[in-house]
Amino acid sequence: MLSYFKKRWFLISLLFLISTGLTFGANSPEESITPVIGLVNPRLVTAIVLFLMSFSLDSRQLKKSFQSPGPVVWAAGVNYCLIPLMAWPLMFCQLTPDFAIGLMIAASVPCTMAAASVWTRKAGGNDSVSLLVTVITNGSCFFFTPFWLNLTTSSDVEFDFLKMAERLVYAVLLPTLVGQLLRIVPQLSALATKFKTVLGVVAQSCILTLVFGAACRGGLQLQGTSLGENLGAVALVWASCIFLHLLAMAIGYKGAGWLKFSSKDRVAIAFASSQKTLPIGILLATDPTMFGGAGVPFAVFPMLMYHASQLFIDTTIADRFAKMGDKSSTETAA
Known about the structure:
By secondary structure, the chain is mainly α. It contains 16 helices and no strands. The protein is 79% helix and 0% strand. The longest helix has 34 residues, at 300-333. It is globular, with a radius of gyration of 19 Å.
């Protein structure tokens, strides 16, 4: 049991904090919830998470992917172009406007900073590909994420492309760049390598604070509404999140096969092309200033659904990839 918890502690904590936060927010007076939510500053916590994850990324491994950029270009294209395009028509199927916008937020954010490489490594894939996809998509999110949201949601909410881009530069791009620049100093690079696991745990713990704050905020919004009873809307948007993730993974993986990429690159593309980062999604969904002060109170739910679903789904898929790799190695040796 202890071994299982060590391997799955983040998933278990994620489910616990989402359910606890929603319950607390939905059943407590506003004056009790507001101080709790106020303890979590989405912009600051997002910047800390991305700095820690960037600082722990060994940029030397990225040189391998620069030599053969095809897999990286394909994975980044699926993640940042195909997923938003597939999510756009799904917006019109949602039963609430906030869920429609939240689904597009989930589709428009970059690849997750840590999970893609962790799952790729676990599955026996080429983690240098997933690392470079992570760096490229997060480094360019200040443009691409506002571009997709402006294109698909500007008719529904007040939207300022330049202001959102500016906020993402400060909350995402700068912390990512600073984290990588500090690795130029040999002593700091050695320190980051030595404490990579610790940095990862701290970053994941910060993500959990974002999740709990977002869940509390979402629970508060449920008070006095009928959304909590509208299970159809919840089921539809959750199914849409799972559909987008699995379809992007399938297209990324199958397309990599058609493009004659190696089996290790195909595994990396499967995860890097379909996973989406949680901190930036929560920042966009919970910070009203991101949408011109209008606010989209329930937009955070699709982001939480997408992230939680991808972690559980990809854990199973990574195990299957690993078994396929072991079987292939055994047959080759025989």
